[in-house]
Design a protein that fits this description.
Blueprint (H helix, E strand, L loop, with lengths): L10 E14 L13 E10 L2 E2 L10 E2 L9 E3 L7 E9 L3 E7 L4 H5 L13 E8 L5 E2 L12 H11 L7 E4 L10 E4 L7 E3 L11 E6 L6 E6 L2 E3 L13 E4 L7 E2 L9 E5 L6 E3 L11 E5 L9 E3 L6 E7 L2 E3 L2 E4 L4 E4 L1 H4 L9 E6 L1
Antiparallel strand pairs: 1-2, 1-8, 2-7, 3-4, 5-6, 5-8, 6-7, 8-9, 10-14, 11-12, 11-13, 13-14, 15-19, 16-17, 16-18, 18-19, 20-26, 21-25, 22-23, 22-26, 24-25
Length: 360
């Protein structure tokens, strides 16, 4: 018998020894007073190990710099100022070199001085933390640091105000032409892009409603998903932003990126990294490839003519007492089927269980 432990929260005391401007925001127009201000920084973080009670973490009983991952957040300031780790170039047990971002230029707009720092304004001590499945920061156990007692409540308020996991999915899509309230679905011809939805064969792939546009510039929009955003998805969703992952038709319990020909049931849409995805709660088939079953009630002896429901587009097979055959012709206009008992070698009896599998 194996023992599985819950994973303890990860809140790492961190000291930033160096930060340099990596990129500046240049998408704003002439009316953007902060166009050209920094929004990403290259930082060197010195991480103190965090002791815990789990013996099966990569380093037993400790978190350290090797446990820091893309998607974690860093803050060294009260007021809810924080930056997201968007890439890591190197890491060891005690040092992480990464790129961090002022997401949506939140810090810039909140700070009265508008210096757009990454949360400290200068080198100094802070913490690296994660977001929970509800999109709020996990700040326990908060280590001794230079932070004031209001740090936790300030940070909680910040993520309640702009909950990027539950309330918003951020998309950079030039020339999107969306307006608040538009219902959208993925553009399957261009993974990672979205289009306005219609009540057509793709209606089951409707994924959310546009919640705001032009934030932080014309190329961006946010949408509120109909499903839930999940962090730490396992196994990794190997693919690109916008890829769908379906129930695998061959390997039970697994997912596949290849859309099955029949019963294409999407489970996740991958977001910006392989462990972050939109869980498509109660998702329906994305197209007309989901199969339906039509049971013949009280079949007549030697019956050869049948009529399927109006939504039948293609008949895959006929079953008589569990034995499949395709010895029939189907008229997609009248929805009528003519069965050939001679080709099958037997006909339909009044006691038989007869059904058809068709695509709608």
């Amino acid at each position: 018998m194996s023992v599985n432990y819950i994973k303890p929260p990860k809140v790492l005391k961190t000291y930033v020894s160096q930060f340099d401007i990596d990129t500046s925001f240049v998408e704003g127009g002439n009316d953007d007073v902060y166009n050209g201000y920094p929004n990403r920084w290259a930082v060197t973080m010195h991480v103190e190990s965090q002791e815990h009670g789990d013996p099966v973490t990569p380093t037993p009983y400790y978190y350290d710099g090797n446990d820091v991952k893309v998607g974690d957040w860093f803050s060294a300031s009260v007021g809810g100022l924080a930056v997201k780790i968007v890439s890591i170039s190197s890491q060891s047990s005690d040092t992480v070199v990464a790129i961090v971002e002022d997401v949506e230029r939140y810090n810039l707009l909140v700070e009265a001085s508008s210096v757009s720092s990454f949360g400290s304004g200068s080198s100094g001590g802070g913490v690296i933390f994660e977001l929970g499945d509800d999109g709020l920061p996990v700040l326990s156990p908060l280590p001794d640091s230079y932070l004031l007692t209001t740090f936790a409540t300030d940070m909680m308020s910040r993520f309640r105000y702009r909950n990027l996991m539950r309330s918003f999915v951020r998309v950079n899509q030039p020339d999107h032409s969306f307006a608040m309230g538009d219902i959208i679905r993925p553009d399957f011809a261009n993974p990672g892009r979205f289009v306005k939805a219609l009540a057509d064969v793709n209606v089951a792939s409707v994924i959310g409603v546009v919640s705001d546009v032009n934030t932080p510039s014309d190329n961006w929009f946010n949408f509120k998903p109909f499903g839930e955003i999940r962090e730490n998805v396992k196994p990794d969703l190997i693919g690109n932003y916008g890829d769908f992952f379906y129930v695998d038709p061959v390997n039970a319990g697994l997912l596949t990126k290849v859309r099955p020909f029949n019963n294409a049931r999407p489970v996740y849409m991958r977001l910006e990294n392989s462990n972050r995805a939109l869980l498509l709660s109660g998702a329906d088939s994305q197209d007309k490839n989901e199969t339906q079953r039509y049971d013949v009630v009280n079949p007549a002896g030697d019956q050869v003519n049948f009529t399927l429901p109006a939504d039948a587009e293609e008949v895959l097979w006929m079953s008589i007492n569990g034995i499949e055959n395709n010895n029939f012709t189907f008229d997609p206009v009248s929805k009528g089927i003519v069965f050939d008992p001679t080709a099958t070698g037997y006909g339909v009896d009044v006691t038989d269980e007869v059904f058809f599998i068709y695509k709608s």
